[in-house]
Specification:
It is a single chain. By secondary structure, the protein is an all-beta fold. It is 2% helix and 38% strand. It has a single domain, classed as Methylamine Dehydrogenase, Chain H (7 Propeller), CATH 2.130.10. It starts with a strand and ends with a strand.
C-alpha cells in the first residue's frame, strides 16, 4: 500500500465553538454539542439548527443584470438507477419522477436516529432493488416498485467500544454492494442476495459513503484519510492523507468519480482531485474562509456532495464558499459567498443550492450570478417571546432545517426536519405544494424510475409516485 501526505439533528460543534459556548448559551440555535456522549468527540455533533456564517460580513443578492430573465431547464427524463450516494455517472438534471406527488408506500428500514444512533446514509439502487442502511449498520433491500423486502443483513459487529458508532453508506458496482460504517467496517455483499463476500476492519470510524472507480472502492475516514481497497477481495490499494480537521459537520460527503479522477471533499475545506489509480493529488482547491465576527465559520467542512456536470465541479462549504471548478484541472471558474451543508443541483443553465440560512437560490451555472433567492421559511416568525425576559425580550424561534433540492417533474423538491416534502417553482422559487412524510428528513431524496425515495430520521423508506 502506498501512502501520500499533504500539508500536514443539530449543528456541528467545534473546539473553538466550545470555548465560546457560554456566549451562545442563551441561543436556541446552539445545542447538543455532544449528543452522542461517550465515544463521539465533542468536535463532531449532529446536524441541526442552522446558523448563518456569511450573513454578518457578506450579503448574497440577486444580480441586477439577470433580474426578470428566463433561463433554460431541460425536459424531464427517466432515471434508470442510482448506484452511488452521489448519483448516476451522468448528472441527473431533470428527473421524470413523482408526477402525482403523493406517497406510494412506506417501509421500515430498521433502527432510526436516537441519542446513540443516526440515520445518515443515502439509499442506492440498481433499478430493481433499493438498498438502505439504518442507524445500527443493518442493510435492507426492497423492491423499488412494491416495497417488498428482498433480503436483510446485519453488519453490526457488536464491538463494545463502538456501541455508539454511526454513519457510513453504500455503493453498487459489478453486482456487488459495498458498505462502509461507523463500526470501522468495510464490506462487499452480493447485491442480489445479501451474502457477504468480504469484510475489512479499518482503524477509524467511517462516516461517508464509498464510491467506485476502476478496480477500487474508495472512501474517507473521520481523520480525512482517503482509502482505496480492491473491489475483488478488499486488498489494500492506496491512501491519501488530507489536513486533519476535527471541526466538522456530522454528515460527511462521499467522494465522486470522474474519468481517471476521484473528486474528494474534506472537513478541512479542501476539495482535491486524486488520481484514481494511485491516489496522487492532481489538483487542490480550498473552499474556506473565516469571518471576524462568527467563530462557527471555523467549520470549513464540505459536507454536501460535490456535483459534476458538463466537465465542471460544483461544491459548497460550511464556511461560506460556493464555487465552480474545471473538473480536470481544478481551475476555479467562479465563486460566490454562500454557505451550505447540502449538495447543489444543476439543470441546464441554472444551478440550485440551499444554504445554511434556509434560503434556496438559483444561479447561472456559467457565471455564478444569482437569478433569485427564496426564503424556505417564509411566513414563519423568526423570534418568539422570552419568558425569562418577562415579555420584553425575544429568542430565536425553532425553524425547520432543509435538505435538497431535487428537480423532478417540474418541481424543485426539498425535505425538512418537520417531516414535510415541499415543491417549489424552479423558475421563481415560489412554494407550490407539499405533502407529509410523517417523520423528519435530513437525507436528500434520490430518483429511481418514476419515483422519488427518501429515508426519514425515524428509519422509514418512503416512495413518492
Amino acid at each position: 500500500m502506498t501512502h501520500t501526505t499533504t500539508m500536514g439533528r443539530r449543528i456541528a460543534a467545534t473546539a473553538l465553538a466550545l470555548v465560546m459556548a457560554a456566549g451562545f448559551a442563551g441561543c436556541s440555535t446552539v445545542q447538543k454539542l455532544n449528543p452522542l456522549k461517550k465515544d463521539e468527540p465533542v468536535e463532531s455533533a449532529a446536524q441541526g439548527e442552522r446558523i448563518s456564517i456569511v450573513a454578518f460580513e457578506q450579503k448574497l443578492t440577486p444580480s441586477e443584470r439577470l433580474k426578470g430573465q428566463d433561463f433554460y431547464i431541460p425536459s424531464a427524463q427517466p432515471v434508470a438507477d442510482w448506484p452511488l450516494a452521489t448519483g448516476p455517472a451522468q448528472a441527473v438534471e431533470h428527473a421524470a419522477a413523482a408526477a402525482q406527488f403523493k406517497v406510494a408506500w412506506s417501509k421500515s428500514i430498521g433502527t432510526g436516529s436516537s441519542t446513540t444512533t443516526q440515520v445518515m446514509a443515502t439509499p442506492v439502487s440498481d433499478g430493481k432493488l433499493i438498498y438502505t442502511l439504518d442507524g445500527e449498520a443493518r442493510i435492507r433491500a426492497f423492491d423499488v416498485n412494491t416495497g417488498a423486502e428482498a433480503w436483510t443483513r446485519n453488519l453490526n459487529p457488536g464491538i463494545r467500544r463502538d456501541k455508539d458508532a454511526f454513519g457510513g453508506g453504500m455503493a453498487l458496482s459489478g453486482g456487488k454492494l459495498f458498505v462502509t460504517s461507523g463500526f470501522r467496517l468495510v464490506a462487499a455483499l452480493d447485491a442480489a442476495t445479501g451474502e457477504v463476500q468480504w469484510t475489512k476492519t479499518v482503524e477509524t470510524p467511517l462516516r461517508a459513503a464509498p464510491t467506485v472507480s476502476g478496480k477500487f472502492v474508495v472512501f474517507s475516514d473521520v481523520d480525512n484519510q482517503m482509502i482505496a481497497l480492491n473491489q475483488a477481495d478488499g486488498a489494500p490499494g492506496w491512501t491519501y492523507q488530507a489536513i486533519v480537521e476535527p471541526a466538522r459537520i456530522l454528515r460527511t460527503a462521499a467522494p465522486v468519480p470522474y474519468e481517471n479522477l476521484i473528486i474528494a471533499p474534506f472537513s478541512s475545506g479542501e476539495l482535491i482531485g486524486l488520481d484514481a489509480a494511485s491516489g496522487q493529488p492532481v489538483w487542490t482547491q480550498v473552499l474556506a474562509q473565516s469571518t471576524r465576527t462568527n467563530a462557527l465559520s471555523e467549520i470549513r467542512d464540505i459536507s454536501g456532495r460535490p456535483l459534476i456536470a458538463n466537465n465542471m465541479v460544483f461544491a459548497a462549504s460550511h464556511s461560506g464558499v460556493f464555487a465552480a471548478m474545471d473538473a480536470k484541472s481544478g481551475q476555479r471558474r467562479w465563486s460566490v459567498p454562500a454557505d451550505s451543508t447540502n449538495a447543489p443541483w444543476v439543470a441546464g443553465d441554472v444551478i440550485y443550492l440551499s444554504t445554511v440560512q434556509s434560503e434556496l437560490m438559483a444561479a447561472n451555472a456559467t457565471s455564478g450570478q444569482v437569478y433569485w433567492i427564496a426564503d424556505l421559511n417564509k411566513g414563519r416568525k423568526k423570534t418568539t417571546s422570552s419568558f425569562f425576559a418577562m415579555g420584553e425580550g425575544k429568542k430565536p424561534a425553532k425553524l425547520p432545517t432543509w435538505t435538497g433540492p431535487v428537480l423532478a417533474s417540474g418541481r424543485l423538491i426539498m425535505v425538512n426536519s418537520e417531516g414535510d416534502m415541499v415543491a417549489f417553482d424552479p423558475k421563481t422559487g415560489e412554494r407550490k405544494e407539499s405533502l407529509k412524510l410523517g417523520d423528519p428528513a435530513y437525507v436528500a431524496p434520490i430518483v429511481v424510475g418514476d419515483q422519488l425515495f427518501v429515508v426519514t430520521d425515524k428509519g422509514r423508506l418512503v416512495a413518492i409516485q
